[in-house]
């Protein structure tokens, strides 16, 4: 085991701050989730206003515009008016989660990040006036139970590493073994995923794969394979974030570097390698999530992506920072408490994955999609009444003579299980000088309260 030192800052030790870290992570996750919801609602409201200005209605709309009751629409309008604070909430949430790593094991905090599911449930019921199905509700109960189990049985001891120790941890036998297993699993999942797509292409004698070629069950299988493969290499972002959090607080405590004789962490190349690693993993994960949202139903793929990311984040960070060392040491000592802790901790993450799967609907939505493509100009200019009048009076008149703005169109398709073609519409472009901006939006309006179309 790499030599480590206990946290000894000018403020209380990390052990004393364990619960502070848990609370900070929960608050940060809630703030981040709320900020994302507010931003998403504001963006959708702008595009829906553009649809209203164009005289376009969504399928199944209750109020003729957004598919919501007047009461719910009024609540969302109030929330959307607060959209400038969405970025503040997101920044505060991410900062709180980042700082929580210094005092609480990352493997425990990953489980508590599932609080975003609970936040979604609260906003879904309170704001959207929609209630989850019994299956989804049981999934939320399992996730809550999983968080309690992980908290009670998970590791509590936090080690502090300076820059040279963080570099040495990369060569530990446990972490090297994990990376080899992760690489092998990635290749296996990629081959499996590709074989399913190739078989569908051969059966349909097509030139390329389309998701409507496979059944709903096969689509779910593809979603699971994609989520796991994406999370394996996106989850190391937690390792880099926790390492940077430790190094930052070492810099904030002037007496630490002198006592440990470790030097200024910001003068070590390891610190900047961690920054590059964090940015790389974050970009990889963002790219994978964006592609997943283009290919799959958001309310089905988002829980799978989140659960996979949290699972592999807990495993990778627990192995790298040797957070599982105390648990397995107790198990090797053949103590009842040690074996029970390991079993409960593992069982907690199993419940977490099962709960996330139950949140996903049993099948893709069967209701019609109103796939509406609008330009970004339509979305932004519709923020004011004057812009709406301009759209009515002048924008349509200019589309036949000038290429500056193409006519938007409405493409309605009947959605069937596994058919995602209704979401993929031709994207018009808005050209202004040398700039091109494109925007595509597919809005689905559920015919019942059991649809999870507001996951984002």
Automatic annotation (TrEMBL):
Keywords: Membrane, Transmembrane, Transmembrane helix. It comes from Porphyridium purpureum (Red alga). The keyword Membrane applies. Residues 412-422 have a biased composition (Basic and acidic residues). It is found in: Membrane. Its main location: membrane. Residues 412-456 are annotated as: Disordered. This is Putative magnesium transporter NIPA8. GO terms for molecular function: magnesium ion transmembrane transporter activity. It comes from the Eukaryota. GO terms for cellular component: membrane. The chain crosses the membrane at residues 17-39, 78-101, 107-125, 137-154, 166-190, 230-249, 269-286, 298-321, 333-359. The keyword Transmembrane helix applies. It is a multi-pass membrane protein.
């Amino acid at each position: 085991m790499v030599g480590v030192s206990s946290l000894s800052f000018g403020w209380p030790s990390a052990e004393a701050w364990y619960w502070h870290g848990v609370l900070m992570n929960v608050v940060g996750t809630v703030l981040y989730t709320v900020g994302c919801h507010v931003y998403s609602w504001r963006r959708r409201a702008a595009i829906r206003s553009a649809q209203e200005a164009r005289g376009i209605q969504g399928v199944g709309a209750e109020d003729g515009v957004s598919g919501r009751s007047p009461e719910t629409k009024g609540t969302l309008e109030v929330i959307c008016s607060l959209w400038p604070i969405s970025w503040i909430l997101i920044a505060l949430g991410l900062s709180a989660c980042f700082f929580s790593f210094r005092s609480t094991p990352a493997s425990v905090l990953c489980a508590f990040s599932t609080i975003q599911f609970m936040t979604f449930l609260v906003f879904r019921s309170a704001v959207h006036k929609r209630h989850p199905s019994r299956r989804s509700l049981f999934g939320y109960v399992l996730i809550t139970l999983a968080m309690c189990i992980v908290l009670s049985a998970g590791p509590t001891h936090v080690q502090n590493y300076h820059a040279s120790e963080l570099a040495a941890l990369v060569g530990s036998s446990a972490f090297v073994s994990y990376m080899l297993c992760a690489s092998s699993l990635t290749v296996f999942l990629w081959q499996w995923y590709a074989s399913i797509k190739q078989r569908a292409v051969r059966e349909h004698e097509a030139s390329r794969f389309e998701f409507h070629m496979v059944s709903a069950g096969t689509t779910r299988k593809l979603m699971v394979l994609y989520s796991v493969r994406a999370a394996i290499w996106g989850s190391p972002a937690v390792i880099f974030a926790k390492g940077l959090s430790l190094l930052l607080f070492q810099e904030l405590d002037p007496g630490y570097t002198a006592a440990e004789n470790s030097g200024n962490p910001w003068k070590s190349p390891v610190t900047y390698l961690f920054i590059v690693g964090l940015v790389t993993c974050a970009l990889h994960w963002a790219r994978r999530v964006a592609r997943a949202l283009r290919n799959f139903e958001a309310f089905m793929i988002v829980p799978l992506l989140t659960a996979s990311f949290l699972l592999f984040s807990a495993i990778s960070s627990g192995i790298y920072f040797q957070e599982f060392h105390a648990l397995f040491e107790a198990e090797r000592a053949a103590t009842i408490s040690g074996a029970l802790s390991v079993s409960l901790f593992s069982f907690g993450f199993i419940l977490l994955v099962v709960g996330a799967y139950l949140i996903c609907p049993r099948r893709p939505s069967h209701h019609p999609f109103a796939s509406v493509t609008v330009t970004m100009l339509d979305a932004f200019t519709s923020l004011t009444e004057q812009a709406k009048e301009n759209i009515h009076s002048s924008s349509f008149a200019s589309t036949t003579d000038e290429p500056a703005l193409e006519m938007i169109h409405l493409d309605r398709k009947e959605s069937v299980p596994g058919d995602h073609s209704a979401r993929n519409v031709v994207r018009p472009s808005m050209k202004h000088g040398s700039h091109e901006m494109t925007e595509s939006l597919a809005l689905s309006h559920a015919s019942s309260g059991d649809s999870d179309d507001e996951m984002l």
